[in-house]
């Protein structure tokens, strides 16, 4: 009975680990992945919607969308005489695809709008609202889709003759270096700091990579430890070096990490300390700016996902440590059992996360990381008893010499 309880506890711990890490990945992926946008937040009210037209008429051909968010708004369903109050309305001038993924609202669609699920239920009693009409102010709008990429309830296009003051401007930052961004700001009279559109996703990505990095470091520590234990065994040294290289390659393969350094971050001389100090100061200023600037619907949505990703990442690490203490592999039979349980738990977790959170986390990393770590850790522990190369060998050599001399 006690043995069965122990097995059940092991299964529960593995399932909890996979679930928490899967949810971490889900919240990370839920944040807009568009890393090629640059945002400007206008807190002084000195930029209006006409700037979008100026940028579009420029020969540079940069994709741009201006936006302003209004709170405490009201929308009406005239057919059912239902109202939705205290809404946040995001009025944009440009293509909505630069702001978030999912349903689109094109720039020339002045009669359309996007609404969120909550507003759809308030106005129509269900999510079957696409193609139906709502009234916002003096405008009659057709629902084009249900969006879920911002905390703004309704998204509409600004009218052509509207000259509203913008809260922000988002541009396509593809191939935009820091120097080009500064040229863009100077050309159009923008004084505000440029903020990368992928900043929230980038931080959340770090949270989701904590577990893989810990697993990699633990394996590498063992490999390096055994490497330095080896004496007069060049073949073993080569094997350990190969194991370390293979471990790192597998890590990057399953995590699909692409490490790259922007050209603007590379100085002409690596000893250019003024460059490094200036870059450090600029990054600190940007971080402070992002922390204290006014947050809008798009930011709040991403921040909520970021916080949840961080919390579940902490739970994942705690469960990983507990699993290391409880699920100790003693033989190959137990190894096969734990790997099989891990795969089965991952299958159930992927389906559960999809049904509960609508997150698609069916990724290679979730399936293979824990089994690979368990296998690697087991074989590193087991191999030691087959390679006794320290005191026993030295004693044996001394005995041989004594026999020869005698």
If you had to describe this structure to a student in words, what would you say it looks like?
By secondary structure, the protein is an alpha+beta fold. The chain has 2 domains: 2-32 and 201-386, no CATH class; 38-196, no CATH class. The chain is 53% helix and 15% strand. The chain is built from 12 helices and 9 strands. It has helices at 2-30, 50-57, 117-124, 178-187, 199-208, 210-229, 234-255, 273-292, 297-326, 332-357, 364-382, 391-405, and strands at residues 37-41, 64-77, 82-93, 112-115, 133-136, 139-146, 154-157, 168-172, 194-196. A 6-stranded mixed beta barrel has the order 2-3-7-4-6-5. Helix 6 (210-229) runs parallel beside helix 11 and helix 10 packs antiparallel against helix 11 (364-382). The longest helix is centred in the last third of the chain and has 30 residues, at 297-326. The protein is flat and about 80 Å long. Mean pLDDT is 86; it is low at 389-395.
């Amino acid at each position: 009975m006690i043995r069965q309880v122990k097995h059940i506890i092991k299964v529960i711990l593995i399932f909890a680990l996979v679930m928490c890490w899967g949810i971490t990945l889900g919240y990370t992926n839920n944040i807009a992945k568009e890393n090629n946008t640059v945002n400007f937040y206008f807190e002084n009210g000195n930029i209006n919607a006409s700037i979008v037209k100026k940028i579009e008429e420029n020969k540079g051909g940069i994709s741009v969308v201006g936006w302003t968010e209004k709170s405490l708004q009201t929308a009406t369903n005239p057919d059912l005489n239902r109202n939705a109050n205290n809404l946040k309305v995001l009025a944009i001038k440009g293509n909505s695809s630069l702001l978030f993924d999912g349903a689109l609202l094109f720039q020339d669609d002045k009669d359309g709008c996007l609404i969120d699920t909550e507003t759809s239920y308030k106005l129509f009693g269900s999510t079957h609202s696409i193609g139906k009409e709502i009234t916002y102010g003096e405008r009659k709008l057709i629902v084009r889709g249900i969006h879920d990429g911002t905390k703004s309830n309704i998204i509409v296009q600004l009218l052509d003759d509207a000259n509203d003051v913008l809260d922000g401007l988002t541009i396509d930052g593809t191939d935009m270096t820091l120097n080009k961004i500064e040229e863009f700001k100077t050309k159009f009279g923008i004084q505000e700091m440029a903020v990368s559109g992928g900043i929230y996703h980038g931080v959340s990505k770090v949270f989701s990579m904590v577990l893989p990095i810990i697993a990699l470091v633990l394996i590498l520590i063992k490999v390096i430890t055994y490497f330095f234990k080896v004496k007069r065994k060049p073949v073993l040294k080569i094997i350990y070096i190969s194991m370390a290289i293979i471990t790192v390659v597998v890590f990057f393969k399953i995590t699909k990490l692409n490490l790259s350094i922007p050209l603007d971050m590379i100085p002409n001389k690596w000893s250019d300390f003024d460059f490094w100090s200036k870059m450090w100061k600029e990054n600190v200023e940007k971080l402070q700016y992002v922390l204290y600037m006014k947050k809008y619907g798009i930011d709040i949505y991403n921040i909520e996902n970021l916080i949840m990703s961080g919390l579940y990442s902490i739970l994942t690490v705690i469960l990983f440590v507990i699993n290391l203490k409880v699920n100790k592999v003693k033989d190959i039979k137990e190894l096969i059992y734990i790997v099989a349980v891990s795969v089965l738990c991952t299958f159930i977790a992927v389906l559960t996360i999809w049904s509960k959170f609508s997150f698609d986390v069916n990724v290679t990393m979730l399936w293979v990381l824990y089994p690979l770590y368990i296998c690697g850790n087991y074989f590193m522990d087991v191999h030691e008893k087959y390679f006794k190369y320290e005191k026993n060998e030295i004693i044996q050599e001394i005995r041989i010499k004594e026999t020869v001399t005698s």
